[in-house]
Design goal:
4 helices
């Protein structure tokens, strides 16, 4: 019988296959390293904030809201760089900002704002550590009271909520914190209404209120004073700005929660 010799050396073929696998793995790792930040890993609608309450939220697959800028931004990612471009039509088409991505996972996004020149990338600010609001929630185990005073173009308002579910509310008749409020309404709220208020304060991170930075968009009255006694912390804040997160809390308490009382 005629024996047909094997084509090539089987040992050599096996060795070559192993080499090709190593090369393929190496190429994959290079590509993964270059494009591992090809998308943001936070989901649409998720809110992340820094310690100073700068806010970051993905609106859809091409727009995001970051409170460093006044308007929503178009965004794109290449390698480890997040680029924000205005969502409005400006003549120069300039970028609003670029960020080097340090961390990009489901509940954290660490960025360094940078400016791009022809020669190099220059760091211009400290790292922005955006962390999911859900990871920052603190239970309000001991709520005694909260008081909000507003003075300004839209008139004066005063709201006091106490742990016994007694609410005092007035929206006229005084202009300074120490002046008595006229037409002050006092009423009790249900356990359900009280729980909703506590839930709102919790989700709005009321205990981070002292670190507020005035929002670049949204409604800010001329003057706002807020004081609270919660979880053993007695805080008095005078003429404060409101971050976007706390503005939503403020709007609910001052204009929505008790409008039918």
């Amino acid at each position: 019988m005629l024996k047909i010799p094997a084509f090539g050396n089987t040992q050599t073929v096996g060795r070559n296959t192993d080499i090709m696998r190593v090369i393929a793995t190496f190429i994959f790792l290079i590509l993964f390293d270059n494009f591992s930040f090809g998308q943001l890993n936070q989901h649409v609608g998720q809110i992340l904030i820094t310690d100073s309450l700068l806010q970051f939220e993905i609106k859809n697959d091409s727009l995001l809201d970051i409170s460093l800028n006044r308007l929503w931004c178009k965004y794109s990612i290449k390698n480890d760089t997040l680029t924000l471009k205005s969502n409005e039509k400006f003549e120069d088409g300039s970028y609003l900002n670029r960020f080097k991505i340090l961390t990009n996972n489901s509940d954290s996004l660490f960025l360094i704002p940078v400016i791009i020149t022809k020669q190099q990338v220059l760091k211009t600010a400290d790292t922005l550590k955006f962390i999911s609001v859900k990871k920052r929630l603190v239970a309000l185990n001991s709520f005694n009271s909260i008081r909000i005073d507003e003075y300004g173009t839209w008139g004066s308002k005063r709201l006091v909520i106490k742990k016994d579910r007694i609410v005092q509310f007035s929206n006229r008749g005084y202009y300074l914190p120490n002046e008595p409020a006229t037409d002050m309404k006092q009423f009790s709220i249900s356990e359900k209404e009280y729980k909703k208020i506590i839930d709102t304060l919790t989700k709005s991170l009321i205990l981070m209120l002292p670190y507020n930075k005035r929002a670049l968009h949204g409604y800010d009255p001329t003057f706002i004073d807020i004081s609270y006694d919660i979880n053993g912390n007695s805080v008095i804040l005078k003429d404060i700005g409101l971050s976007k997160l706390h503005w939503l809390m403020y709007k609910y308490l001052m204009y929505e929660a008790f409008k039918n009382k």
